[in-house]
Amino acid sequence: MLDRSIGELSRFIIIALGTTIFGFSTGHWWLALCSGLTVYLIWLLLQQNRFDHWLSNGRRGPAPTNFGVWGDITDDFYRMQRRHRKEKQKLHAMLRRVQDSTSALREGIVALEDDGNLAWWNPVAGEMLRLQADDSGQPIINFVRDPRFVEHMHERMRGANQGDLQPITLPAPGDDSRTLQMEVTRFGQDEALVIVRDITRLHNLEQMRRDFVANVSHELRTPLTVIAGYLETLQESGQAPRNWERPLGQMSEQTVRMTSLVNDLLLLARLETSERDSGRDRIAVHGLMERVADEARSLSGGRHQISVVCDEDSTITGDAGELHSAFANLAFNAVKYSPDGGPIELRWRIDASGGHFAVKDSGIGIDPLHIPRLTERFYRVDAGRSRESGGTGLGLAIVKHVLLRHSANLSISSVPGRGSTFTLNFPSQKLTQTSSATT
Fold first, then answer.
1. What are phi and psi of 307, to 5 degrees?
2. pTM summary value
3. How is domain 105-198 classified at the architecture level of CATH?
4. Structure confidence by residue, pLDDT tens digits, 216-227
5. DSSP 3-state assignment of 23?
6. What integer pLDDT is reported at residue 437 of this predicted model?
7. 3-state secondary structure of 365
8. What CATH number does the domain located at 203-273 have?
9. Under 8 Å between Cβ of 386 and 439
């Protein structure tokens, strides 16, 4: 830049000196100097005008041929234009490769601009959501009107944590025979991507599994009732041979265990197939905790010290039976897996994030490796010990589905050999404060 300024100043001095010398030879040096500088100025203005005209026409065609400082500016601008054109071509080529690669995906991809407006989508998304070319720029909620998706998208656009929200499963727009899974991922400032998957086959298989489990469990109830009735009659009548007493007792125990398993399977099937929204009962937490503690004490038979601590009583809006099942499952597990004489604490506390029901035991503890899988059906950390305790392997799976229906979640902390703490976390909107602390 300094070299250009020096060069232009040199040209200006040369013109001024040349016209002045010419003026002295003619006797009119002042007029000659003014005339030379005027011509030089007009020449600069003409070059500037040519450059402005080229810019105003959208820089079509080659840059104009100029001289001096405007020639240098034109050359630099032209080189910059060519560099930007090459970069633009690279970006277009990259965009085409991205579009081609996303077109080959089996998942639908929808790019959203500000306020959730459609910017671009691959053919799979267009087919699943029935989007047309002229739909670009319209809000996506005009095409996916399910309230669950609208809430999910608004939560993500407000910056909710990616791990806090699960993908939404809903029928395909205009085609209830297809089931879609949709997830919104925010990026940049206000842009977002919507990932759309067709899970119709998986959904149908899952529904078949649920129906099968529910139907088989229901059909098993009648023969189990008959078997249990005959066994009870044989045991109470005293007519069975003495050497049958032990086999009959074992059969009775296994019948009771099988009946408990069937009941848990039926409850789990009902939780999975019913609507996600829970009931509208108002359950007093302290009263529920006392009932669960009494049942746990009966199960314990005086072998454990079971205490109830309610820092601040409140009510939970939901289904009374389901909440009782969730609370009781945690308490009964603590009894089953705690050594005799070990303390078990049931505590309720409230903080800014909501209400928390925790069951703390002094049991065998759980290796952190197993914690992520504890809510799977029939998953057992120690299969032999679980069978001895009479568990069905479905308790925590039931707890998980009850919490899903109450917009709550389960957290687990455990140290092997030092006990575990299972905590049910309820959101504030499910709670109503009722009274002061109770112990």
1. -120, 155
2. 0.59
3. 2-Layer Sandwich (3.30)
4. 777 777 888 888
5. helix
6. 47
7. coil
8. 1.10.287.130
9. no
